[in-house]
Specification:
Layout: E1 2-7, E2 10-13, E3 18-26, E4 28-39, E5 46-51, E6 57-59, E7 67-72, E8 77-82, E9 91-101, E10 106-110, E11 114-119
Parallel strand pairs: 2-11
Antiparallel strand pairs: 1-3, 3-8, 4-5, 4-9, 5-6, 7-8, 9-10, 9-11
C-alpha cells in the first residue's frame, strides 16, 4: 500500500504565495508520474500540474507562469509552488502518484487533500 500525505495549504490573500508538499511512503518500488489536482465546491476535480520521473512537466493553462511543480525523487516528495494566487484558485488540492509497488504491481494513489483558500 502506498500513502501520500499533503501539507502546506491554508488561507492567503490574493497575490500571495503558498507551497504545497506531498510525501509518499509505503511498499513501493518506484513513482512514475506525480502531480496535483484540485476540486472547487460544485466543480469536478481538475488537473493542476504533473511531473514525470524524468522531470517533464505539464500545467493547466490557468496556472502557467504562476505555479511551479517539482519533485525530490530521493525523498519521494512532490511540491507545488503557487505564486500570485487568485480567488479562483480556491479549492481542495489533491496529490496524485502512480508507479509500481515493491512486488511490481502498478498502483495509483491519492492524498487526503489540503484546503487552499485565497481571499480577495
Amino acid at each position: 500500500q502506498v500513502q501520500l500525505v499533503e501539507s502546506g495549504g491554508g488561507l492567503v490573500q490574493a497575490g500571495g504565495s503558498l507551497r504545497l508538499s506531498c510525501a509518499g511512503s509505503g511498499r513501493f518500488a518506484s513513482f512514475n508520474a506525480m502531480g496535483w489536482y484540485r476540486q472547487a465546491p460544485g466543480k469536478q476535480r481538475e488537473l493542476v500540474a504533473t511531473i514525470t520521473s524524468g522531470g517533464s512537466t505539464n500545467y493547466q493553462d490557468s496556472v502557467k507562469g504562476r505555479f511551479t511543480i517539482s519533485r525530490d525523487n530521493a525523498r519521494n516528495t512532490v511540491y507545488l509552488q503557487m505564486n500570485n494566487l487568485k480567488p479562483e484558485d480556491t479549492a481542495v488540492y489533491y496529490c496524485y502518484a502512480d508507479g509500481f509497488t515493491s512486488s511490481w504491481a502498478p498502483f495509483h494513489s491519492w492524498g487526503q487533500g489540503t484546503q487552499v483558500t485565497v481571499s480577495s
